[in-house]
Amino acid sequence: MDVLLAILSQFGLYGLLTLGVAIIFAALRVVNLAQGDLAMTGAYVAVTATTVAFGWRVLLALALCVLPLLAIERVLLRRPLADGLATMLVTWGVGMALRQGAELLFTSTSRTVAAPAGGTVELLGTPYPAYRLVSGLVAVAVIAGVLLVAYRTGWGLTMRAVADNPTMAALLGTDPRRMRSAAFVIGGMLAVLAGALYSPLLAVNPTMGFGLLVPMFFALLFSRPGALGTAVTAALLVAALAVLLRTWLTDTLADALFYIVIIGTAALRSRSHVRRLLSWSRRILSPARSS
Amino acid sequence: MVPSHPFSRTVVLTSVAAALLATTACSGSAVSSAAGDAGAPLKIGVVVPLTGPVSETGKALQRGFELGVQKVNDSGGVGGEKVEYVVVDDAGDPATSTQLARRLIQQDRVSMLFGTITGDTAEAVSRVAEDAKVPFGTAILGDTEGCFPYSWGFGESTRQILEPSVPELIRTYGKRVAIAGSDYNYPHFYAGIAKEIVKSAGGTIVAEEYSPLGQTDWQPVVTRLKEAEPDVLLSMVVGADAVAFSRQAQQFGLITPKLGYDGAPLDSDYYPALSDLVNGRTHVVRWTDQLDDAESKKFVADYRAKYKWTQPLPEVAGNAYFGIQFFLAAAGKAGRNDGQAINTEIGRLRFDSPLGKGTHFEPANHLLQADMLETTIGPGGAYKVTRNLGPVADKVAKQGCA
Amino acid sequence: MSRRAAAATALLLLALAAAPFGLSAFAVATLTLGLCYALFTYGLDLAWGRAGLLSVGHAAFFGCGAYAVALSEEHDVPLALALVVALAAATGLALIVVRIGLASGIPDAPLILLTLGVSLLLQKAATTLTPLTNGTNGLTVSTSDVVTTYYRTLAAVVVVVGLCTWLIVRSRFGARLTAAARNPERAAQSGIDTVRVRSAAFAASGAVSAVAGALYAPVAGLVSPSVFGLGLSTSVLVWLALGGRESTLGALLGAVALTTGQQLLGTAWQGWYVLGLAALFVLLVQVVPGGLAGLVRTWLSGGAPKVTLPPSASRGGGSGAPPAFQGAEAPPVSRGGRPATPPEAGRDAALSLRGIAKSFGPVRVLDGVDLDLRPGRCVCLIGPNGAGKSTLLAIVAGQLAPDAGTLRIFGRDASGVPVHRRVRMGVGRMFQIPSVVTELSPADNIRLARMEAPARAELPEEYRDLVTDDAAAAGALPLADRRRLELAMVLAGAPRLVLLDEPAAGMGRQDALRLARELRQITVRTGCAMLVVEHDMEIVRELADDVVVLHGGRIIAHGAMDEIVADTAVREAYLGVG
Asked: In this predicted complex, what is the ipTM?
């Protein structure tokens, strides 16, 4: 039970970040390396705006980030359109600037936020921190909501169409540029939400986003480009792997093993016969699709 | 074939060569380096992290140091000359510290070095200082494993903290002690000493957990610690992790008022983030801004005025303030700006300051033998002195100095 | 290298050699550190710039070299032995990583993941294995005086860069690499083993980085786990991005400039320096994506291609000189005409397929295809959409492996033979969308095709202009010219079996018919066999000796055009009757 709750909590964090970065990747074909730093800015809003209730602070963070995100996409990510890697480097620069800006503004000292729902709740006999549960559930709800929008509404369909084939989508009357802006803002907002929502669990400091980048990156690379569902699944797997290893082993050993498993999986996945095996097993598991 | 352009690479290369020479051309040439100049003012090199994750502590050290030098200069300097210093930023990276320490010695011709926050940078500068035979002072809390003949620690040693505090914690809260730490050299060293002292105080170690730096989720660790049902938790989880760990441990109900809690998270650096968690607890320190003597009070007032500081003063600032005065007193005794001579004097000097009467370095481990204070943490981060523990000796010999 | 460039290089070396006489000790020490980082950046350039393989954890290799020096001093291991082990480790690690990466179709994601994972894992290991590595406190490395260290570092950098320039950048290997990194499909189709070439470059990149690390250790004086860190890995990416990829000078200068800037301005400006650097970086990537070297190159080259093949590419295989025969000598061609004796091929079929089958997931695309193609004949493959025509072509070329069946090319079993080796057996291929190396000039493209050609082939008169066209990059050509260039590349490879996928797609009627006639001529003149996928019946009529109709993964008809048109099965397949 404890383990499941731990996975829920970690998945909420990684899931929000990965989903955001996957949306951005789908529309812009760019890995947003500033994603962790966007989460950091969200957390700082939650830390600084202490005059209003926590829930409002999270919403405030989301509202405040819309315009800057739009500006970043419009001003900085438009020009090197031709080269995806150059754009990726721009996001790296943006992240670096955000980190350094936060350090100059708030100093490098870590801060915390009091959890809005203190105390513990009883879950099947085990006490569990109330806010940890709330944040995990809210995160999962948001992830589910975003997926629902992406797969069940016309807007989501258009978005995925743009991701699949921008030129085609443009011919069919969707403005891919507006879609790119929207995707970047939404993806960035998910990161800001993750940072603000999880701020009571974390130490808030300028470099906090850096540590979140690696698991998010792993999850993104294990997902299929443009397929948001697989990104969320990959985030779940990465979270589960990290939590399970750390539950069974000491942290140091778990950490090393985590990387070994990730590297091993990447190595195996790129072998064509393993890929084929995977696709067969998928076919066996879902025979309906093969007809 | 590539059409070759009239000035293609020639222009680029020549301008590059010129730029290289122009931008880096400073005083003198590396080939003919002169010997140290005599009769010049005493110069100190300060290596501190001014950017990066530990920059705040670095800045506090720098401020304490500067006020210390200012005080000495106001009362006539050393040997009638005002003391000068050069501050460089190592960003907390040991390779950069090494580079910069060498630069300070070779180019700026400093006669002593001061600073560093993290243990790895301290060790890096120690080695440079040893090679160049220049004394080096640190003010960080806790000591390093090794000892270097030219390095002197003004911060309290691990034993000086734990010897008074652990028996008190066991007496107050109970015998079952758990240890948590970040997974790098110092926490392991800290835990080794802690285990020794816990044992001699009649306690038992019930759990020991290390986690890599940069951990965001502490549930597995906290769960394991909780299962061990400790009465006392000693934490050497440092940096941002100290805050996240303490918060999550509190949320899981591990850290309650009934649990004895001591270690790095109780240092004044973390007070703004963890105030509700540490208020009312006792913590053993060498110096606090609440110390009730004229010199400390003046220092605190100056610090607050000069740097517009309202929060509690970091302990490292005080250690640096009195530490550099100790160093300069030794330099005054040596009478010349020769690193080796000053180093010998540092080893011999007995210095009176708010840190204690006749504070001096133990030759076997280069640790400052000074008073320790038991403080109780009050609202607003006031580390109120509840008991002066007097001089706490740490004479355990270390490799390198003994 | 031109005389001016040589003179300039000598001048730069002279300036570097004289630096200790004009600079202070600290400046020399900074320059030494800059040189170490410069070599590291150059190492990364071999992978990211030259081989087109992005590594975000290149510090893994750098750290191997640095730790080798530190460990050899700490544990009294001979330095030479430690260095050899480190080089072997870095090369081996790089090879494993790149092989895994290249095994998947798009190597970017697995490569990023693997390099990142490996570097972080090594960092963890260095942190945890305290008895060996002294954990986070690191290992100290003794140093000789500043000037000696400087000259030693400079000498090593010059030797390594010189060696790499000679062996990797300016050699025929470099020409192969240039093509393999930019257009692996066309490179393989020009007979280049792209996986091997790129892996070798990546391994060399790992080795160079390890050397840089080994040089860095005594300069830094201390080696700690941060040498494996993400911070260094990203710094080196930034240095290279600023300096400019695929430019030796750009890589070196980017690193030296930023290292010096950090040391000179970092302390004075503190946090603002880092913020300024971030802003400058964002700005530079926006304005000059090619880095400073790219800027200089654009400025100097005008409209000429920014990428060129090294001169060594035109040695051997073929030369750019106009071929001996004149257009007038080309034999006159009559429709349906056939050379009396097909040259070389003997009586063996150029291509022989038996029972070729291929499925994609549950979809059976090819279901037992038998086909024979004789030298000098042109067979057109037609069939409705989804009939498996392009798949069949890809199987013959070697891009896809069949699930069942045998495939013989000139009598030799070619089932397991990779694309580039089939090219050496005489297979040439044109793609549906013209595939040329767009960054290179047309002349370089043809040089490339000639480099690995099994025999020297002269180009027909109407392609000669391409042989000397060095003015602009091939990407700037209009579609029809790009297709012409691709065909010229295929012909320059002296093919005996040519595979064409809709050669006339996107062309005007007149152009298409002219192309068909040209192709016709080629089979006649060279006696090569041709397998063409085509939709346009008019072209098919112009081109084909035989027509093969593919439907539902099987051949349903085979014969002359008129027979095919009359065939009822074909009519059913196309019109859906019955």
From this structure: 0.81
3-class state of residue B262 by DSSP: strand
**Domain check: are A38 and A59 in the same one?**
yes
Domain identity same for B264 and B291: no
Contacts of B217 in chain A (CB under 8 A): 6, 9-10, 13, 201, 242-243, 246
B117 lies in some domain: yes
Q: Is B53 on the interface with A (CB under 8 A)?
A: yes
Query: Confidence class of residue A278 from pLDDT cuts 50, 70 and 90?
Result: low
Query: CA angle, A183 as apex, A179 and A189 as ends, to 5°?
Result: 145
* Percent of chain A residues topping a pLDDT of 70: 85
Cβ <8 Å between B56 and A108: yes
Same domain, A277 and A233: no
pLDDT digit string, tens, across residues B334-390: 888 888 999 999 999 999 998 888 899 999 989 999 999 999 999 888 899 998 998
Label the pairing between strands C497-501 and C412-413: unpaired
- From B237, B261, B284, the end of a domain falls on B284
Give the DSSP per-residue string, chain A. -HHHHHHHHHHHHHHHHHHHHHHHHHHHS---TTHHHHHHHHHHHHHH-TTS-HHHHHHHHHHHHHHHHHHIIIIISSGGGG-HHHHHHHHHHHHHHHHHHHHHHH-S--B----SS-SEEEETTEEEEHHHHHHHHHHHHHHHHHHHHHHHSHHHHHHHHHHH-HHHHHHTT--HHHHHHHHHHHHHHHHHHHHHHHGGGS-B-TTHHHHHHHHHHHHHHTSPTT-HHHHHHHHHHHHHHHHHHHHHS-HHHHHHHHHHHHHHHHHHHTSHHHHHHHHHHHHHH-GGGG-
Same domain, A154 and A202: yes
Position A166 confidence tier, pLDDT thresholds 50, 70, 90: low
- Cross-chain Cβ contact C116/A214 below 8 Å: yes
State which of B230, B260, B284 marks the end of a domain: B284
Owning domain of residue B175: 159-284
* Chains touching chain B, criterion 3+ CB pairs below 8 Å: A, C
Q: Return the residue in C3, C14, C23, C263 with the most chain B beta carbons within 10 A, the one to mutate for interface testing.
A: C23
Q: What is the pLDDT of residue A272?
A: 61
CA gyration radius for chain C? 28
> Count of residues for chain C?
578
- Look up the CATH architecture of domain C19-301: Orthogonal Bundle (1.10)
Structural domain boundaries in chain C: 19-301
Does residue A167 sit in the same domain as residue A260? no
A31 → chain C, closest CA residue: C109
Please indicate whether, in this complex, the C-beta atoms of B210 and A252 are within 8 angstroms of each other: yes
What are the residues whose beta carbons fall under 8 Å from the beta carbon of C40, sequence distance 6 or more?
C58, C62, C208, C209, C212, C213, C216, C236, C255
* CATH code, B73: 3.40.50.2300
Question: Is residue A276 very low, low, confident or very high in pLDDT (cuts 50, 70, 90)?
Answer: low
Is A207 in the B-facing interface, judged by CB distances under 8 Å?
yes
Q: Cα dihedral sign for A179, A184, A185, A187?
A: positive
Residue among C20, C140, C273 minimizing CB distance to B31: C20
Q: Does residue B24 fall inside a structural domain?
A: no
pLDDT band with cut points at 50, 70 and 90 for residue A139: very high
Q: Which domain holds residue A178?
A: 2-248
Residue with structure tokens 């999850």? A219
What is the count of structural domains for chain A? 2
* Residue pLDDT, tens place only, C52-73: 888 888 999 999 999 999 999 9
The model's pLDDT over B263-292, given as tens digits with 9 standing for 90+, comes to 988 988 888 888 888 999 999 999 998 888
Same domain as A219, residue A136: yes
SS3 B71: helix
